[in-house]
């Protein structure tokens, strides 16, 4: 154990030991995505307490546990990864049915998002066993939090997680073309050896802003926002920029505002508002003109306010 985490284990015991940890449950534990300090006190306590730790890579997990002073014998580590997830789930189920507590960790971050874990939790649901989340680090939410891409004023709210796009060029281009029509903020993930190819495909999005978040929480973390058409040049400007793991945030499609509606769309909207309730008028105007429903609705409210003044 490094001395820097000795006090953290004491704090973990003091903060979390009094909580209830049911037997026969799987504890899905988020672990750091780069910075070892990004571990929760509850995670440290659970990793000490459980009977067994299921993990994506036993060697990687043993190294992480060693850093915290929590090294385990090999018999207490169970490999559960994308190639054996279904079979290994049966071992986990058997242990849980015996009343054991088991933690599950992926190599980094929150399991079951883009890492293994989802099938394991689904298998437990089918037999009535419980999965308990221990939240923590995630490259997806970390990138979103600093991109400034999800705001109430940018039309479509929320975001979509698309994960890793296909690796074959034609399929990747097809996926990007579909994303071009997705108005919401979209989060992608990519490995360093494919980031240039992804950037070339994303160039189809032209001026749409994109935030590249590289090596989040690590020493050489790099986060930059630019038009999609500039991604390749930015990445190739220095060799360091193509190293590390990437989370990519496609900002929402810009929405036309108020008087920025095409003249024909505004004319149709005004005619329909004169005869129909607002929602019905907006619905028909959207179908007739193809303009954004949100933009038409906002403009309809503006027109009604203007008429009342």
Automatic annotation (TrEMBL):
- GO MF annotation: an example: rRNA (cytosine-2'-O-)-methyltransferase activity
Mind telling me which InterPro entries this protein's record contains?
Answer: 4pyrrol_Mease, 4pyrrol_Methylase_sf, 4pyrrole_Mease_sub1, 4pyrrole_Mease_sub2, rRNA_ssu_MeTfrase_I, RsmI_HTH, SAM_MeTrfase_RsmI_CS
Positions of the RsmI HTH domain: 260-304
The UniProt keyword set, sorted, is: Cytoplasm, Methyltransferase, rRNA processing, S-adenosyl-L-methionine, Transferase
Q: Which reaction does it catalyse?
A: cytidine(1402) in 16S rRNA + S-adenosyl-L-methionine = 2'-O-methylcytidine(1402) in 16S rRNA + S-adenosyl-L-homocysteine + H(+)
SUPFAM superfamilies recorded: Tetrapyrrole methylase
Domain of life, per UniProt, equals: Bacteria
Q: Which Pfam families match?
A: RsmI_C, TP_methylase
Against CDD domains, the record matches this protein to: RsmI
Where in the numbering of this chain does the Tetrapyrrole methylase domain appear?
A: 26-231
Task: State the compartments where it is located.
Answer: Cytoplasm
Q: What is its EC number?
A: 2.1.1.198
The record's GO CC annotations read: cytoplasm
Q: What is its main location?
A: cytoplasm
What the record says about family reads: Belongs to the methyltransferase superfamily. RsmI family.
* NCBIfam families named in the record: 16S rRNA (cytidine(1402)-2'-O)-methyltransferase (TIGR00096)
What HAMAP family is this protein classified in?
A: 16SrRNA_methyltr_I (MF_01877)
Q: What is this protein called?
A: Ribosomal RNA small subunit methyltransferase I
């Amino acid at each position: 154990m490094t001395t820097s985490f000795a006090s953290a284990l004491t704090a973990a015991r003091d903060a979390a030991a009094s909580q209830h940890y049911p037997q026969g449950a799987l504890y899905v534990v988020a672990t750091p995505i780069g910075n070892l300090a990004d571990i929760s006190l509850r995670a440290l306590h659970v990793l000490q307490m459980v009977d067994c730790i299921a993990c994506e890579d036993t060697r990687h997990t043993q190294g992480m546990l060693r850093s915290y002073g929590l090294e385990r014998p090999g018999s207490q580590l169970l490999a559960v990864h994308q190639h054996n997830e279904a079979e290994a789930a049966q071992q986990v189920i058997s242990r849980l049915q015996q009343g054991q507590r088991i933690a599950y960790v992926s190599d980094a971050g929150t399991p079951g998002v883009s890492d293994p874990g989802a099938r394991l939790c689904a298998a437990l649901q089918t037999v009535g066993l419980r999965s308990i989340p221990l939240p923590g680090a995630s490259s997806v939410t970390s990138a979103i939090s600093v991109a400034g891409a999800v705001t109430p004023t940018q039309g479509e709210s929320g975001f979509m997680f698309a994960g890793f796009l296909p690796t074959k060029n034609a399929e990747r281009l097809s996926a990007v073309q579909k994303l071009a029509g997705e108005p919401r903020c979209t989060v992608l993930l990519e490995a360093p050896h494919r980031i240039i190819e992804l950037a070339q495909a994303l160039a189809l999005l032209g001026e749409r802003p994109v935030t590249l978040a590289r090596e989040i929480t690590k020493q050489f973390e790099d986060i930059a926002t630019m038009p999609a058409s500039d991604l390749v040049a930015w990445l190739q400007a220095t060799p360091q920029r193509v190293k590390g793991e990437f989370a990519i945030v496609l900002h929402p499609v810009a929405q036309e505002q108020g008087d920025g509606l095409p003249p024909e769309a505004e004319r149709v909207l005004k005619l329909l508002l004169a005869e129909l309730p607002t929602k019905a008028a907006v619905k028909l105007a959207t179908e007739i003109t193809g303009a954004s429903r949100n933009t038409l609705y906002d403009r309809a409210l503006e027109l009604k306010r203007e008429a009342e003044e």
